[in-house]
């Protein structure tokens, strides 16, 4: 029985990822989840009390996977500058992944305070990954620099998600350049 519930919960989360990546937060409804999974709508409520609960669990499940991908890319880098580049490139490479698209859609939605706090904490963990590399590069305020660097990454993510005129690779290269050389290019 526990295995069945676990499989149903995983199916609901997978359906939620698909709905979020296809249509944003407006598409994430309990009737849509029920339709995607073949469950009765009332059954969806047995697994999640609200849409915010679905979002919170997606963050708990997906964000660590995303962060582990970024961390692994950074670990393969040999210098502080290479770790910064890996941090930027890996996040932007993940833009097309359904897990990432779901997290982006979630970030844009109206959530309760608990869900927002979990997202903030997860982002804080991501930002913390790069602080040491920035300190090695000589930043006097590496934590502040890390938060600003994440702002550059977030702007590049939005640009890619919007289907900007530039190719995703050009946006990634520009974000890396800004991260390593500032606006000097």
Oligomer: single chain
Q: Low-confidence parts, pLDDT < 50 over ≥5 residues?
A: none
H/E element sequence? HHHHHHHHH
Sheet bearing the most strands, described? none
Q: Compute the gyration radius: what is it?
A: 18 Å
Distance between the termini: 58 Å
- Beta-strand proportion: under 5%
Shape: elongated
| Overall number of strands | 0
- Give the proportion of residues in helices: over 70%
Q: Structural class, judged by helices and strands?
A: mainly alpha
Q: What is the averaged pLDDT score?
A: 86
The count of helical stretches stands at 9
Describe the 3D structure.
- The chain has 185 residues and is an all-alpha fold.
- The chain is built from 9 helices and no strands.
- It has helices at residues 2-23, 30-37, 41-47, 51-75, 80-93, 98-108, 113-136, 142-161, 168-181.
- Helix 4 (51-75) crosses helix 6, helix 5 (80-93) packs antiparallel against helix 9 (168-181) and helix 8 runs antiparallel to helix 9.
- It is elongated and about 55 Å long.
- The model has no long low-confidence stretch (mean pLDDT 86).
Topology of helices and strands:
Layout: H1 2-23, H2 30-37, H3 41-47, H4 51-75, H5 80-93, H6 98-108, H7 113-136, H8 142-161, H9 168-181
Question: What would a concise description of this structure say?
Answer:
The chain has about 180 residues and is mainly alpha-helical. It contains 9 helices and no strands.
Core attributes:
185 residues, elongated, 9 helices, single chain, mainly alpha, 0% strand, 78% helix
């Amino acid at each position: 029985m526990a295995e069945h519930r676990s499989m149903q919960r995983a199916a609901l989360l997978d359906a939620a990822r698909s709905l979020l990546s296809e249509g944003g937060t407006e598409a994430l409804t309990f009737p849509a989840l029920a339709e995607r999974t073949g469950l009765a709508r009332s059954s969806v409520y047995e697994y999640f009390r609200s849409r915010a609960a679905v979002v919170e669990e997606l963050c708990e499940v997906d964000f660590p996977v995303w962060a582990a991908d970024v961390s692994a890319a950074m670990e393969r880098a040999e210098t502080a500058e290479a770790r910064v580049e890996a941090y930027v490139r890996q996040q932007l490479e993940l833009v097309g992944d359904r897990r990432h698209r779901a997290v982006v859609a979630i970030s844009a939605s109206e959530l309760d305070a608990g869900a927002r706090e979990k997202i903030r904490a997860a982002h804080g963990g991501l930002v913390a990954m790069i602080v040491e590399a920035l300190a090695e590069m000589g930043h006097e305020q590496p934590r502040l620099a890390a938060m600003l660097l994440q702002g550059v990454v977030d702007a590049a993510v939005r640009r890619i998600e919007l289907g900007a005129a530039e190719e995703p690779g050009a946006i990634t290269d520009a974000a890396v350049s800004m991260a390593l050389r500032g606006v000097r290019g």
